[in-house]
Amino acid sequence: xxxxxxxxxxxxxxxxxxxxxxxxxxxxxxxxxxxxxxxxxxxxxxxxxxxxxxxxxxxxxxxxxxxxxxxxxxxxxxxxxxxxxxxxxxxxxxxxxxxxxxxxxxxxxxxxxxxxxxxxxxxxxxxxxxxxxxxxxxxxxxxxxxxxxxxxxxxxxxxxxxxxxxxxxxxxxxxxxxxxxxxxxxxxxxxxxxxxxxxxxxxxxxxxxxxxxxxxxxxxxxxxxxxxxxxxxxxxxxxxxxxxxxxxxxxxxxxxxxxxxxxxxxxxxxxxxxxxxxxxxxxxxxxxxxxxxxxxxxxxxxxxxxxxxxxxxxxxxxxxxxxxxxxxxxxxxxxxxxxxxxxxxxxxxxxxxxxxxxxxxxxxxxxxxxxxxxxxxxxxxxxxxxxxxxxxxxxxxxxxxxxxxxxxxxxxxxxxxxxxxxxxxxxxxxxxxxxxxxxxxxxxxxxxxxxxxxxxxxxxxxxxxxxxxxxxxxxxxxxxxxxxxxxxxxxxx
Amino acid sequence: xxxxxxxxxxxxxxxxxxxxxxxxxxxxxxxxxxxxxxxxxxxxxxxxxxxxxxxxxxxxxxxxxxxxxxxxxxxxxxxxxxxxxxxxxxxxxxx
Lengths: 493, 95
Fold this sequence. Notes:
The structure holds 2 protein chains of 2 kinds.
Chain A: H1 6-14, H2 20-38, E1 41-43, H3 46-61, E2 72-76, H4 103-110, E3 114-119, H5 153-160, E4 167-171, H6 177-183, E5 186-189, E6 209-214, H7 217-227, E7 266-270, H8 280-295, E8 299-303, H9 311-326, H10 345-356, H11 359-371, H12 377-398, E9 404-408, H13 424-428, H14 435-440, E10 444-451, E11 457-464, H15 469-482
Parallel strand pairs in A: 2-3, 7-8, 7-9
Antiparallel strand pairs in A: 1-3, 4-6, 5-6, 5-10, 9-11, 10-11
Helix pairs in contact in A: 2-3, 7-15, 9-11, 9-12
Chain B: H1 5-14, H2 21-38, H3 73-77, E1 83-84, E2 87-88
Antiparallel strand pairs in B: 1-2
């Protein structure tokens, strides 16, 4: 069952070929064998998972199963789950057993899915390599000397290594798509506001968005069906009627025939995505994917995203500014870590935060504190918000001429562990293609499209207009019916 | 406009993060590298552009001003570092 799709697993559960308890045990055993090396999971809890699996089996026996009932799903350790350690990859929350469920967890529980465990991540989702985790780096299953990407690196690794059939992630500047690309899996960041942020530890609230990670677009669609939906407890949650993202995947593009199912689809390709800084092996794989889309009937439109180079500077003002505000809650008083020794209240705050946060989180809090401080607000924060609008306007212009935008997810394939960790600016430039959709609030996904240097995976970045997830997933599904990049698994897995 | 060592220490104080002399020195270099990247924003004139505060440009939803939370004080305090008789304990602030 380790290579099976969610649909195949659901069919096997429905036909009683396997029980949820057996399935969950198989995945837990596999995690037990491989996680010591890969470090994809921070927490597994056999008893809790199996209790949910037994409930799921009873529900299936009653004939009351939903599509994901009985299927074990791994959750990024940023989602609060009642009774589970929810560390967010930080020492600051290394003792935090959540007293409540995130909306996303409630939705999966309601669907009868099993919590398989909590996955490793960059501390507070700040990182592109999973090396900032308090629980140590995650390894890339394609080559264990390389990073899996981040910040949802544990979820990406778990899917790639077949430790979980599906997983959740979050994406503030690329944290679902970049690890999906570097680990050779499919991941989608929905339109901002699709998935509730309630119970999802906050990093940069105007950008943070939960999403799904899986082996294929079809699996991602099934996961998104469970995750998406209005939640009054998130003030930015969107009130929209429910959509079935998985229902129409196999249908051709409107007006197209079966032999050229994507005829009529206009794919925007931006010159800015193929300039200096893009590695030749990644460019080649992405061009190969674009040629495949043309074989499927799609046409290419040249577009311009002239302000995209300003997205990284603007992001590194907005995200740290919001983070410095959000992370001020960690003061050692109500929950989380408290320094063991201190002189007075101020000293308790300062020592708790100095000891509880890692280097990257502190750096971002300091940047954010500075850009929001008296006299600098206009020059940095307001300026960055103005650039944010320019970037959103670039996309709006592009989408008047095309249906989807495609390009590389990341400028290179996975890089060696330790190679960028001491140079923050180099690390930040990894997210040059993934950041613009977050600033605009657009949906974006990455899907496997080939291999580059060292036989490491390459991801294709697909950006859609607001609320076009169903179309994006349909287009990705047709690509995956015509290719087998997404079916490749790392050696020895 | 590079940050001085004193500015780095002042920012750390504002952020309530204790910082040693050697950490402040290391951080100074890294922050100045990052601000070198951020300064690229100044290359574009944005004086006529409205700041974008929300991805969908919508006003935040408001709710009725009513009681919506049930009392879960003891559950929530079970994860606190130090609690006594329902109160969070911190070092003495007022003599």
